[in-house]
Amino acid sequence: MNDYIMAFLIGGSICVIGQILMDKTKLTPGRILVTFVTSGVILGALNIYDIVIKYGKAGASVPLPGFGYTLAKSVMKEVDSVGFLGVFTGGIKGTAGGVSAAIVFGYIMAIIFNSKTKGN
């Protein structure tokens, strides 16, 4: 039960930060997205996000900073195993499963539901 509470607290905190950024700044959603992914990369490269993942589990790995963290860790692992070429292949290998799942499930939802643009 403690894992669920920690995932909720960590994931919720990330969402609260995003909401505050949307409400209190003039940052566009795209810039906030990039900020979250970049912060995950930086914190992952510095091994700080490892601690957040340890306690927050899915609450830390599913949101956008978790994606950046996965990119950073995958690149570092690939560079250690194949050298400089890992800079280009590590992120792709590390995140391919998640990106593929998002595409497949998004496509399935588009088929099942009548999707519309926001203006309609």
UniProtKB/TrEMBL annotation:
It holds the Pfam family SpoVAC_SpoVAEB. This is Stage V sporulation protein AE. It comes from the Bacteria. The chain crosses the membrane at residues 6-22, 34-53, 94-113. InterPro entries: Spore_V_AE, SpoVA. It comes from Clostridium aestuarii. NCBIfam families: spore_V_AE. The keyword Membrane applies. The keyword Transmembrane applies. Keywords: Membrane, Transmembrane, Transmembrane helix.
